[in-house]
Structure prediction request, 348 residues.
Amino acid sequence: MLELIRQPWHWAFAGVLIGLTVPTLLLIGNKSFGISSSLRHICAACLPANIPFFKYDWKKEAWNLFFVFGVLLGGFIATNFLSNPNPIVVNPATVQDLKALGITDFNHLMPQDLFSVENIFTIKGLIFFVIGGFMVGFGTRYAGGCTSGHAIMGISNLQVPSIIATCCFMIGGFMMTNFFLPLIFKLF
Amino acid sequence: MKNTQIEHPIECEAPNEQVKSESFTSNLKYAIVGTIFGIVFVKAEIISWFRIQEMFRLQSFFMYGVIGTAVVVGMILVFLIKKLNIKTLDGEKVVLHDKTFNKGQIYGGLIFGLGWAITGACPGPLFAQIGSGFLAVFVTFLSALAGTWTYGYLRNKLPH
Prediction:
């Protein structure tokens, strides 16, 4: 059994479990699924700075913070107790493309060439952590949701604005991966 | 139980609609759902930067399969909840919100998409990556908070 759990899970199994999160949250406590709002609640709790957007009763929305704490804990449990002993399998075409960009580590979920602590204070860190993270936080809030709030919850509830937002997420991702990333990697 | 109108922070995509207030212990159930969610993220390797690269290079069906399946399952069950008027555990009516279109979904969506392909993470996987021990991602998280805060600060000046 543990052997089976340790293997990478099939996309359909993961998809079903993620999809089930939507009705689960609705039925256990009338909560609409959405993760990026946790970032807003943390801003509202820590540094509201009299900004109207952060002046609300964040404690009433605390469930979202419990949820993301769970996600963090789940990441810890899966990595430390249920992890796959073998390196991640990446599509050979992707490996080839990324090798051409200068990525050398294909053994971890995140390439050590980019996502290592040593890179924090380098130009790589500035782009992949600081600027990338800023765009994720700014963009999701500007769009009013992320992959969970728009793509999964919003489309599950047949919301046209969520379909538009999801299309824009994808367009942004395609542009970055295929046009900007090759230019960015020239910096290193 | 009759539902009263609940006031919300403006445009929260994941509002708490439960009338009955919840204690710390009651909130723990969301942490449990979150934990399962985080385990799925890691075990299906959704938190991997490589999976996001494969997706945006159209070199793997994996992420499309995950998101597509999740949407179909969510859609069917949300439909059933509405159709059969299924109540929450506390007997309340399930409240779903219609979203209104604004240009933020386009501009913000594009900005998030660009950032998603760099970091390999949307906000959910960000937490799971940190939990998995990729400590550098904590910087990404802090920066995402700064981005959210900056949006709040500039909100009135941005086109919507």
